[in-house]
Amino acid sequence: MPIKNRYAEMLDEITGWRRDFHAHPELLFEVHRTAGKVAEMLRGFGCDEVVEGIGRTGVVGVIRGRATDSGRVIGLRADMDALPINEATGLDYASETPGQMHACGHDGHTAMLLGAAKYLAETRNFNGTAIVVFQPAEEGGAGGLEMCRDGLMERFGIEEIYGMHNAPGLPVGHFGIRPGALLASSDEFEIVVTGKGGHAAEPHKSVDTTLVAAQILISLQTIVSRNIDPLHRVVVTVGAFQTDSEASNIIAHQVRMAGTVRTLDSENRALAEKRVREVAEGTAAAMGASVEVSWESGYPVTVNAAQNTAYAEEVARSITADVIDNVDPIMPAEDFSYMLEERPGAYIFVGNGDSAACHHPAYNFNDEAIPFGSSWYSGMIEARMPVEE
Ligand SMILES: [Zn+2]
Ligand SMILES: [Zn+2]
Question: How many CA within 13 A on the CB side of residue 53?
Answer without folding.
Answer: 0
